Amino acid sequence: METKNNYGLPIDLAKVSKIEHESESHEGDLKYSIDYDASEGTLIYASFSGVIIKVKDDSNVGGLDKKFEDSGNFIEILHANNEVSEYEHIKFKSSRVRVGETVKEGEIIAEVGNTGWSECPHLHFMVYQSGNEYKTLKIKFK
Question: 133: closest CA among 16, 33, 49, 23?
């Protein structure tokens, strides 16, 4: 399945060193996730307007071992058509948004980090239908 919404890019591609669609963490239901490798501190943007529903940015821990999976920082935004975009591995204390706030497409929401189960600083980006967490949708970009 693919998204009903058309999303903007969550990061400036000029600041991205590599885009990865396939990795160990993109198997099964996560197959439509996208990793954007970029320097720590690179700005992350809301890819579509919506309401912030979850924010975690209190972790400063990350590494190659799957044991770090729950230590990753992230932001989730609820959009039209009941779709949720998620931005993972954000930098410690970099969130510029709070739960309940409305954001517009292109608004700065955080910075790239290396928290959680991660081999390098990057943004893990995915979209799924609310209620079907982590069953990613193929993202339609503008």
Answer: 33
